[in-house]
Write a structure and sequence with these properties.
GO terms for molecular function: NAD binding; oxidoreductase activity. The chain is an alpha/beta fold and 323 residues long. It has 11 helices and 12 strands. The longest helix is centred in the middle third of the chain and has 20 residues.
Length: 323
């Protein structure tokens, strides 16, 4: 059966060619409003009304309006714009499948967090600052402030594809991994905790990794009350969404020493204004929403879609299914 596939992601030519060739004999519509950034919301496009499948970042209203759509694959791990009861119930009612691309970004985000855990433990950002500033030789502080990751406790706020991959990468360090998620079913080598146990888990954790998506339940989740529960000197990492953190409370926790350090790949807003106090907060380190970055991102997104296309056609389970 021939399908019509609509796409509004502008891929690099090798990936675009792979998509064009691999979807044949199906029809491929590339939106005139295609965008190269997966983080940019799609604009309305009437041509999506001809499609059975949408791939990229389709406008939410277009997805709701055109009930011909049988499957939507998002080109991102995050799906904030689509994470509403109204949207998901509308898709369920007509049998439309929704998938994201978490699997494409899980390894890169997990490696990014692990890199920061290790570099903070070994005092690498601090030494880099010394090299870029006055070339001072802080032997005693750097040597005796260094910490081992081995045997520490890591709390994951969220346990999807990124959290699972990070737990795998942490295994050789024999850390204790706690994970907060809505479904409290057991996981191998991970202690899944319910929401009501979050305060005691924060008090136990040496590292708190926020991987929460943005929705009504998570906005401002990391607030002053929860930060006050953290073990003194704990390190906080955010690769979820900036809106899930009360940044004023985070700033206070850094200034008071409650948190030993923070690493932020996401902020609110983005880009973070140059005058924002988090840029100069003590032991706060920021990257510009690059944790998911990988040089072969376009190729990986296309391959993820093609694998799911084959599953969609055969009725097999689809990867990273949301609805």
């Amino acid at each position: 059966m021939s399908l019509t596939i609509w796409c509004n992601t502008k891929f690099a030519e090798p990936a675009a060619q792979r998509l064009r060739e691999a979807v044949q004999p199906h029809r491929l519509i590339v939106s005139a409003n295609a965008n190269a950034s997966v983080l940019v919301a799609g604009r309305p496009d009437p041509t999506i009304g001809e499609a059975d499948i949408a791939f990229g970042q389709p406008a939410v209203d277009d997805c709701l309006r055109h009930d011909r759509l049988r499957w939507i694959e998002l080109s991102t791990a995050g799906y904030t714009r689509y994470d509403t009861d109204e949207f998901k119930e509308a898709l369920r009612a007509r049998g439309t499948v929704l998938t994201n691309s978490s699997g494409v970004f899980a390894d890169s985000c997990a490696q990014h967090v692990l890199a920061m855990m290790l570099s903070l433990g070994r005092q690498l950002p601090q030494s880099l600052r010394d090299q870029l500033a006055d070339h001072s030789w802080h032997y005693t502080e750097r040597r005796y402030d260094s910490r081992l990751l081995t045997g520490q406790t890591v709390l994951l706020l969220g346990f999807g594809a990124i959290g699972r991959r990070l737990a795998e990468l942490l295994a050789p360090f024999r850390v204790t991994v706690l994970a907060l998620r809505r479904q409290t079913r057991s996981e191998r080598n991970v202690r899944v905790i319910p929401a009501e146990a979050i305060s005691s888990a924060l008090a136990e954790a040496d590292h708190v990794v926020n991987i929460l998506p943005e929705n009504d339940a998570t906005r401002g989740f990391v607030n002053a009350r929860r930060l006050a529960c953290c073990k003194r000197g704990a390190r906080f990492y955010n690769v979820g969404r900036g809106t899930t953190v009360d940044q004023n409370a985070l700033l206070e926790a850094l200034q008071s020493g409650r948190l030993g350090a923070a690493y932020l790949d996401v902020t609110d807003p983005e880009p973070l204004p140059p005058e924002h106090p988090l840029w100069t907060a003590p032991n706060c380190f920021i990257t510009p929403h690059t944790a998911g970055g990988r040089h072969d991102q376009d190729e990986a997104l296309v391959e993820h879609f093609l694998k799911n296309l084959a599953a969609f056609q055969s009725g097999a389970p689809m990867t990273d299914r949301i609805v």
